[in-house]
Amino acid sequence: MLKVSSLESGYGETQVLHGVDMDIRKGSVHALLGRNGVGKSTMLKTLIGQLPVRRGRITFQETDITALPSYAIARHGMAYVPETRDIFGALTVRENLQLASRLAPSEGAWSMQDTLAFFPNLEKRLNNGGHQLSGGEQQMLAIGRALMTDPNILILDEPTEGLAPIIIQQIFEKLLALKARGMTILLVEQNLHFALGLADDISLMSRGEIVWHGTSETLAHDTAAQSRWLGV
Amino acid sequence: MDLSFWILQFLNAMQYSMLLFLLSIGLTVIFGLLHFVNLAHASLYMMGAYIGISVAAMTGSFWAAFFLAPMFVTLIGAVLYFTLIDRMRTAGPMNQVLVTFGLIFVFLDLVRMGWGDIALGLDGPASLSGTTRLLGVDYPAYRLFIIALGLGVMATMWLVLARTQIGAMIRASVENTNMAAALGINVSKLFFLVFCFGCALAGLAGVAAAPILSATTTMGITILIPTLIVVVIGGLGSLEGAIVGSVIIGFMETFGAVMIPSFSAVLTYALLAVVLIWRPQGLIPARG
Amino acid sequence: MFYQTKLRSITLIAALIFLACYASFGSYFAREIVVEIIILAILAISLDLCAGFGGMVSLCHGAMMGVAAYGFAIMSAKLGWPLFPSALIGLFAAVVFSGLVGWVTSRTNGIFFIMATLAFGQMAYTFFFKSRWLGGDDGFGGISRFDLSMIGLETNDSLVFTYIGLVILLLAYGLTAIVMRSGFGRTLSGIHVNEDRMKALGVNTAAHRAKAMAFSGFIAGLAGIIAAQHTLYISPELLIWTTSGEALIVVILGGLGTLVGPIIGAILLVLMKHEISNYTDYWHAFIGLVLIFTVLAGGRGVFGQIEYWFNKLTQKHQSTTKPHGDDHA
Amino acid sequence: MKNIATKLALVTGLCLNLGFTMISTASAETKVGLLLPYTGTYASLGNAITEGFELAIEEAGRTEEFTIVIEDTEMKPPVGLAKARKLVYQDEVDVIAGVVSSGVLGAMRDFIHQSQVPLIVANAGNNLATGENCSPYIVRVSFSNGQINRPMGTWLSENGVKTIYTLAPDYAAGHQMIDAFTEAFTAAGGEVIGSEFTPFGQTKDFGPYLTNAQASGADGIFVFYAGGEAINFVKQYGSFNIKTPLYGSGFLTSPLYVEAEGDAAIGVRASLHYIPTLDTAENKAFIKAFQAKYNTMPSEYAVQGYDAALALMAAVDNGGVDRATLASQLPHVSYVGPRGPLEIDPATNNIVQNIYIYDTVMENGALTQKIIDTVPAVRDDVAGCQM
User: Fold this and answer.
1) Domains, chain B, ranges and CATH?
2) Gap from C14 CA to chain B (nearest CA, Å)
C-alpha cells in the first residue's frame, strides 16, 4: 500500500536518510523502531511531505507521491499524528476536528459522531480550547483529528511519549480497535512492548537505514537484534 | 468643554482608529500567516488612493472608485506575490524588510511618474457630503461612514475568523503551518488568498481615506510608521492586537492632540517604547 | 565573529586609495561626494557592528550620529566652548544615548527591536525638531572646523578636510575591527547566535548588548562630528529614521558583517545616486530595484559576494571567513 | 524640465565637450545655478519655480545669454549646501537662484555670505534670512513669512474680527507665520484666544484640532498650512460644517491645490503676494504666456521663479556682469511684474510688494480667486539686519 524505495532525505546540509526501503501492507500495523536520532521522525516527515525527498521514490496506493506537497499527500489519505501532537491551541476541540474533515467525505468516512463515539472523552471537551487539554486528551484529539481526514493510513510518531501508564493503556486499546477495523498504521515507537503488542511487521532503523525487517513475533524472540539495534 | 465636545472628540478618535485598523489589519494578518513583514503594504495603500482618484475621474463616481480601486490594488498585490513575496517567504524578516523597503521606493517613483508631484484630492460621495446629527452633535457623514466601514470590516473578519471553516483554517495555519498542511489544507493557496485580501484592505483604506486626506507621493511612507506601531503594540499577527493597537493609537493621538498638544508628536513613540520594554512581544501576540 | 582577512585589508586600502584619488584628481564636487561617502561609511560601519555581529538591526543610528553632532554644535557654537572638548562631549552624549537605548531595548529582538529603536530615534528627532532654541527644523549654523594649523593643516581647505575624513574613516574601521575581533566581539556574535546559551555561560547579555550599542554610538558619533564640521551647520534632518534606513541599505548593499562592505556600499550608493540623478529625478526607484536585486541575489551584498566567490576559489582557507549574509538570511 | 535640460547638457557634454567650453568662454553670458528640490515633498514647488524662471528668460528672448545649471536639493539642508558649493566652486556660476525650504537656506547662508556669490531666493520665507542673518549677497524675490501674514492681522482686526484661534504646523515657518499674524492682530486690537501647533508632517486628522478651535468660540480661525496638509485641512474644515469663518495664509488655498480642496475652499479668506485673477496687464500677459507654454494656471511659486529671472535680467541690464556687480545691482531692482509693483528693499534685501486679501469663490462652475483688498507695498522691518 505504501512503498518506499531508496529514500534519501535530511535537513539543510546534513543528510539523515541514506536509502530507506519499506513496504507497508494494506490493513497491517507496521512499526518503525530504533534508537534516538537514527532518523525515524525524519522518515515520517519525509513521507508526509514536510521534508523534500532528495532521492528515491514513495508510492502510495499505486500513486507516486514523491514530489507532492504536504497537503496533497494528506488528501491522498495519509494522516499524521506528530510526536508533539500539535493541537491547535487557538482552536476549540470541535474546530480542531472539523478542520480536518473532508468537504466531500467518501462513503463510510469518519464523521464527527464516529470520532466522538470512538473517543468519548473528547465529547465533553468539545467547546474547550485546544490549549486546555491534558496530555492524554491531546493525544486522543490528535488521533481523532487524523481520523477525521478519513485516512487510508495513519502515521503515528511516538504516541505514548510523556503519558501516564494508564493513558498509554487507553491509547493502546484505541489503536488495537482501529487495527481491528482494518486501518493501516505506521507507528514509530520507543516503547518496545507497546509496539510488539500492536504491530504485525517491524522495521528497525539505524543511521538512516533499515537494518532489520521481519514480523513482530520474530523480533520478540530475536534478542540479539533487540539489543543490537534497540539497546534493550 | 461640554459633553458634545467630548462626543465629537470620541468620534474623531474612532474615525482615526478605524482608518488605522483597516491598514494594520492587512499587514498583521499577512504577517501572522506568512510570517512576512510587508512594508510595501503602505505603498499599496497609496496606490489605492491614487487609483481611486483616477477611477473617480474617469467614471465620475466615488463608489466606482471605492469598489474598483481595491480590486486593482489586489491585482498589483497578486503580481507582487508571484514575483517577490512568495520566494521571499523563507528568506527571513531582515531580507523581507529590505525587499519591501525597496518596493516602497519603486512605488514612490511609479506614482510620481503616473500622477505627478502635486498633491491630489478625491471628493467623497455626494450622499455623504454633509453632516449627520448623532448623539446630539453634528458630525461629518463621511467620517461616520469610515467608522461604520471599519467596524463592519472588524465584525466581518471576527465572524469569519471565529465562526467559519476558512477562519479556523487560517487560525490553524497561523499557529502551525506544517500541521495544517498535514491535515490537507492547501496552505500556499490559503496564503495567497489571505495576502490578496490584505492587499484589498490596504487599497480600500487608501481610497476610503482619500476624501479626508489628500493623496501625496509620500503618503505611503508617512502612514507606514503609525501602521507598524499599531501592529507592533498590538502584537504581530493577531486580529485582537490590531484592534487594540488601532484603538489605543487612535484615541491617544486624538486626545493627546486635544489635551497635551505639545507632546502629541512624541506620544506615540513614547507609548511604543514603553510597550516594547514592558512587553517585548506586544500586548496580544498571536499564538504559534 | 570578525577576521581581518587579506582580502578585506586589500579591499579596504583599495577603497581608501580610490577615495583619496577621486577627491584629489576629481572636480570640486568630487570632494563633497567623498565626504558624503565618508560620513555614510562610518555610520554604516557603526550599524554593521550592531546588525552584522549583534543581530541588532537598528533604526536609530541616524539619531546616534545626530546626538553627537548636536552635542558638538551646541557646546561649540551655542555655548562657545573650544572645539575639541565640544567634540568629546558630543561623542559622550552619543555614547550615553546609544547605551541607554541599547539597555532598555535589550529584551526585544527582530522587528520589535527595529521598532523600539525607531521609537527612540524619532523621539530624539522630535526633540531637536521642536527645540526653538536650536532653530527647530531650520537648525543653526556658526559651527567651525578643528583648527589644526599647529600641525600645518588648513581644515577649511576642502581637500585637506577630505583627507582628514579618510583618516577618521580608517580609524573608525580599525577600532571597530579590533573590538569585534576581541572577546567582546566574540561574545556579541555569540549572543546573536544563541542568547540563551550565552546567558547560561554567565554573560549578562542585556548589558553586553547595551555596551555594543554604546560603542556603536561612539563610532556613529564620529560620523556626526564630521557631518557637523563638513556643513558647518546642523539640522534635525540628520536624526530622522530615513537616515538610518539609508545606512542600512548601504550595509546590505556592501555586505553585512564584513565592516569593509559598508565602505563599499557607501561608495556605490552615493556614486549611484549622483550619477543617476544627473539623468532622472526618479533615482529612488533605481535604488529600490538595486536593493531588491541585492537581496534576491543572495543577500550577501557586493563585497560579501566577492568574498564568497573568493573563499570558494580558495577552499583551503575555508576556516577563515564565513559570509554573515547566510546567518541573517 | 530638468530632464530636458540635463539631457541636453549630457548630449552637449558628450559630443561637443571641447566646442562647448569654447562657446561658453567666447560669449559674455551669465551662468545661473537653479537650486531647487525636484524630489521629495517639495518637488512640485521646485518644478513650478523652474517653469516660471525658464518662461521669463524665454519670453525675453535671452536664452542664449543665460546658462542654467540645475541641481536638486531634495529638501535636505546638507544636500542643498553641498550642491551650492558645487555650483560655486565647480560650475563657477555667477548667481544662484531658487531654494524652497528655509532649512536649506539656513544651511547655505554662511557659505553664500563668505563666498560672495549672489543668491536670489525664490521661495524660502525664513524671516531671519532678511533680518538678523541678512547678507548683501542674499536677495529675496518671494516673500518673508512675516510679510504675508502681518497685513492679514491688521486687516482682520480692522474689519471687525475681534477674536481668533490660530493653527499651524509645528515647525519654524509655522511659528513665524503665526507669530507675525498674532503680533499685527493684537497690535490692531484683536485677541488671539487660542493657538495650537500640529505635529508637522504627521498630522493626518485635523478633526480634533478643528473641534477644539470651534469650541473656543472665536470669531475666526486663522491658519497656515501648505501643500498636502492644506488640502487635508480645508477638506476637513469643510466636512465638519464649521460655522466659524476660516482665514489663512494664502498658501492654504493656493491655485495649485484649490482644485483638490473642492467646494470646501469656497469662502476661505486669505492673504498672499500673488493672485492669478489679478486684473493687470502684466499679469494677464504672464498668464497667457504661461498657459501657452505649460497648459496650466501659474501658481505663486511659478511667479516667484518668474520674478527671480526678471530680477536677474534687470540686474544684468543695470550692469551686472559678474558675481560682484550682480550682487551690488540686485538690491536696486524695481519693476512692475505679474504680482504688481515690486522692488527690493536695500535695507534688508527683502522684496517690497503688495499683499492681496482674497476669497476663494465659485464662478462659472470653477473655483477662482476674488480679490477683496490690497495692502500696498508691504515692507519688512529692518529687524536686526546689518548689511
Assistant:
1) 3-278 (1.10.3470)
2) 28
Q: How many helices, marked H, and strands, marked E, lie in chain A?
A: 10, 10
Q: Where does the pLDDT of residue A54 fall: very low under 50, low under 70, confident under 90, or very high at 90 and above?
A: very high
Q: Tell me the residue type at B66.
A: F
Read off φ and ψ for residue A156, nearest 5 degrees.
Answer: -120, 130
Top residue of C131, C249, C251, C284 to mutate, by most chain B CBs within 10 Å, is C284
D21 pLDDT exceeds 70? Answer: no
Residue C233 touches partner D, C-beta closer than 8 Å: yes
Specify the amino acid at residue B12.
N
Does some domain include residue A213?
no
DSSP per position, A156-172: EE-TTTT--HHHHHHHH
List, in sequence order, every residue forming a beta bridge with B97; answer none if it has no partner.
Answer: none
In Å, how far is B160's CA from the nearest CA of chain A? 13
Which of C50, C97, C112, C125 is the best mutation test for B, with the most CBs of B within 10 A? C112
Q: What is the CATH number of domain D5-143+279-352?
A: 3.40.50.2300
Facing B172 at nearest CB: one of A70, A82, A99: A99
In terms of DSSP H, where are the helices of chain A? 40-47, 70-75, 93-100, 112-118, 120-123, 135-148, 165-180, 192-198, 216-221, 223-225
- Alpha carbons B233 and B285: distance in angstroms, whole number: 9
Least confidently predicted of B263-272, C166-175, D263-272: B263-272
Task: Flag whether C196 is in a domain.
Answer: yes
Q: How many CA atoms lie within 13 A of B58 on its CB side?
A: 10
On the question of pLDDT at C321 being above 60, the answer is: no
| D195 Rama class: left (phi>0) / alpha (psi -120 to 50) / beta | beta
B105 to C127: CB separation less than 8 angstroms, yes or no:
no
pLDDT at position C91 over 90: yes
Against chain A, the chains showing at least 3 CB pairs within 8 Å are: B
Here the cell at position A130 is: 485546544
d(CA C226, CA C158): 12
Chain B interface residues facing chain A, Cβ-Cβ under 8 Å? 165, 168-169, 171-172, 174-176, 178-188, 287-288
Closest CA to A203 of A5, A40, A19: A40
Residue ranges per structural domain of chain D? 5-143+279-352, 146-272
B43 neighbors B108 (Cβ within 8 angstroms): yes
Interface probe, candidates D81, D92, D108, D134, chain C, greatest C C-beta count within 10 A? D81
Beta-carbon separation of B265 and C130 below 8 A: yes
Which whole number is the average pLDDT over D280-306? Answer: 94
Stretches where chain B sits below pLDDT 70 are 1, 287-288
- Smallest CA-to-CA distance from A24 within A230, A200, A205 is with A200
Contacting residues of D for C277, CB less than 8 Å apart:
39, 72
Instruction: List beta partners, residue D360.
Output: D369
CATH architecture of D146-272: 3-Layer(aba) Sandwich (3.40)
DSSP states of C60-91 as a string?
A: -HHHHHHHHHHHHHIIIIIT---HHHHHHHHH
C22 inside domain: yes
Burial class (CB in 10 A: 0-12, 13-18, 19+), C274: middle
Which tens digit of pLDDT belongs to each residue from B144-174?
999 999 999 999 999 998 889 899 998 898 8
Task: Give D111→chain C minimum CA distance, Å.
Answer: 9
C132 CB near a chain D CB, below 8 Å?
yes
Q: What is the pLDDT of residues A31-40, one digit of tens each?
A: 999 988 899 9
- Give ipTM to 2 decimals: 0.84
**Domain encompassing residue C129:** 6-240
**CA-CA distances (angstroms) from residue D227 to A1, A190, A216?**
72, 72, 82
pLDDT tens digits for range A132-173? 899 899 999 999 999 998 899 999 999 998 899 999 999 999
